[in-house]
Amino acid sequence: MDDITVRQQVLDELEYAPMVDAALIGVTVENGVVTLSGHVRNYAEKCIAERVALRIRGVRAVVEQIEVRYPENPRLGDEALADRCARVLEWDVRIPERSVSLKVEKGCVTLQGCVPYYHQKAAVDKALRRLAGVTDIVNLVAVTPPIQPTEVKDRILAALKRSAKDPDTIRVKVEGDKVILDGRVDVWRERELAERAAWSAPGVRAVEDNLTLAW
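and the corresponding structure tokens:
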């Protein structure tokens, strides 16, 4: 499909897209690469325009240069916007508590942290998309599968069996991405082995070592 046809189809699709003012968006096409320019009323509208362009047959890629302008609302300061974003994430039951941190710079919200499932990462983006004052979202939230307590314990026991006299004296508890070690060991090296084994399990971000030495 030639570029002229692709451009016209993108324009037509934008015209019919809900929540998009196609008159404010410019479209150019070169070798199947669509460049969107102009301005929109909010970040959600910007996302819709990008998705519309991507679903047109013949589009190889989209370069998005759309500016977000809020004609009816004064622009929020970054501090106020960051506070509003944080509150929205706290209220969203789909997002694990304290799993995501954010920073705001000139209306651009950068998200970091980790969640167990991809739909939770998507929920973070979706929760902020329609928020007044947001001009862009950079979602760097990692998706880390839930830690399996049995896997963590098996790794620790396997490591200890190679050198410890009685690995059954160590108790392993997993709380989210944190591993808690309790019990006793015969020598200091066994404690180090237990810690190392706990840290080697996928998804572990903290290890609380409450092991004691047997005297």
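(Above: one complete record from the training split.) The CA atoms of residues 13 and 83 lie 36 Å apart.
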